[in-house]
Specification:
This protein is mainly α and about 120 residues long. Helices cover about 65% and strands about 0% of the residues. Bound molecules: iron/sulfur cluster.
C-alpha cells in the first residue's frame, strides 16, 4: 500500500466509529476462526483492507483485491467462511468473499438444499 492510500484509509477509519466496532468484531472472529492457532493470515493486517470505508471506488477496489490476496493463502479460510455465513456477516471481506459474493453463495446453497429436498434426497 502506498503512502497516499495509507493516509486516505486512516482518515476514513477515523471518520466512522461504527466501522471500528465491526473491525473489532472481525479481529475477535478471525481469532476464533484460527482456533487459537496463530493461523489467520489477516492477523496483524490493516483491518481497513477488509472493511474499507473509503468513498473512493479505486481505494475500495485496491483494498478488496489486497484482502482477497491475503485470504487466498489463509489456512483457516474454511472455518472463517463457515463462521461468516453462520453469523450472516453484513459487512467486510471474509474468507476472500465480499458481502454480495457471500449472499450469492448462501442463495445457491439454499437452492441446492431445496432441490435436494424436492427430489427426496
Ligand atoms: S480467510 Fe481471510 S478474513 Fe478469514 S481469517 Fe483468513 S485471512 Fe482472515
Amino acid at each position: 500500500m502506498n503512502t497516499m492510500h495509507s493516509l486516505a484509509l486512516v482518515g476514513a477509519r477515523n471518520a466512522d466509529p461504527s466501522a471500528r466496532l465491526v473491525r473489532q468484531d472481525f479481529e475477535e472472529a478471525t481469532r476464533a476462526a484460527s482456533g487459537g492457532l496463530p493461523g489467520a493470515a489477516c492477523r496483524g493486517a490493516d483491518p481497513e483492507l477488509f472493511f474499507c470505508s473509503s468513498e473512493d471506488a479505486a481505494e475500495r477496489q485496491f483494498a478488496e483485491r489486497r484482502a482477497k490476496q491475503i485470504c487466498a493463502g489463509c489456512p483457516v479460510r474454511d472455518a472463517c467462511l463457515a463462521g461468516a455465513l453462520e453469523r450472516r456477516e453484513r459487512f467486510g471481506i471474509w474468507a476472500g468473499l465480499t458481502t454480495q459474493e457471500r449472499r450469492r453463495l448462501m442463495s445457491a446453497e439454499s437452492k441446492q438444499r431445496a432441490q435436494a429436498k424436492a427430489a427426496g434426497r
